[in-house]
Amino acid sequence: MNNISRRLFFRSGAGLGVGAFLLGGFKSVRSQTGGSIPVIITDHGNETGKTAATTAFQILAKGGSALDAVEKGTNIIEVDPEDVSVGYGGLPNADGVVQLDSSIMDGKTYSAGAVACLENIKTPCSVARLVMEKTDHVLLVGQGALKFAKSFGFKEEDLMTDKSRRFWLRWRENLNKDDDWGPPDHLKKRDEKTAGLYDGIDHYTGTTNVLAVDSNGDIAGITSTSGLAWKIPGRVGDSPIIGAGLYVDNEVGAAGATGRGEDVIKSCASYFIVGQMRAGRSPQQACEDALQMIVDRYKKVNPNFFPGEKFVALNKNGEYGCSAMSGRDNPDMVVVNKSGMMIHKGSVLIK
Ligand code: GLY
Q1: How far is CA 214 from CA 3, 24, 188, 237, 277, in A?
Q2: Is residue 3 part of a domain?
Q3: Is the pTM of this model over 0.90?
Q4: Catalytic site residue 207?
Q5: Of 223, 260, 270, best ligand 1 pocket probe by most atoms within 8 Å of the beta carbon
Q6: Residue 47 is part of which domain span?
Q7: Which of 118, 221, 298, 308 is at 20 to 30 A from 269, Cα to Cα?
Q8: Overall domain count for the chain
């Protein structure tokens, strides 16, 4: 990361003013204003994210619940084999085993459910929902979570795709050059089949957040992920930790996190964002506040270190926001409400 012992800027996206600030103090951050309900958002700005949000919005448009909408939307992202950060096709742990984390929260009943290190089930958010609705527990992990899922009829399936397996083998090859796990770079045949195969191999984290407010004003959210690629087996990130990767409060709104989970857990970022909104900050401002809060803590230890979080938030009025710690481009977020589907460009803390 660049040396950032200089001015930091939130580089704001479409529809947003430029909010410049110095480390430790905002000068100004302009917010997206005006919202409507029902509304659904996802941080997944790709085609699958658009399909997920527009499909799930149909539930909201017919008067359905935010809970049903976020589950439907997340399921579409989870089963996408091309997505290496969530569900089926997600990048595995160091042993080549895909271990999924997910949480769900219902702002109306103040209930939550989550699973961690869940193997062989493509749609962990649906298992998390069952934890929330069928038990008085909040978090099930590993074999216990799998047994629980199977007891409700979920089928075990291989979550590795050819693509995720090749990425993992490539990582292993780099881990120990003496092992015969694939051809060295200079011998690798680049052809149509392998073009772009290793692009994005350094994309170590990735997650989806899907948040919604329904026409009754009830709010729900889901966070789902395959977690940090090549993680130590058993590692749990922020996504299934209520308050870290997800938080929902019907009186205020919802927030979700992506990026390096360890930083998000230590900062209780989603809870913090909802707290900021409760105190009057807009969703956009609240996401930026959370990034600044994390930077402020790290800068005491290492002024040049900046983690890689992205936050999304939605308030009870249907206003939304999104901000990322760093990146060349402003982060995308899909928003669907009565005006249709749009890509909201969030802000970036570090240029
Ligand atoms: N945010 C996903 C993870 O770190 O596991």
Answers
A1: 44, 37, 51, 28, 19
A2: no
A3: no
A4: yes
A5: 260
A6: 9-350
A7: 118
A8: 1
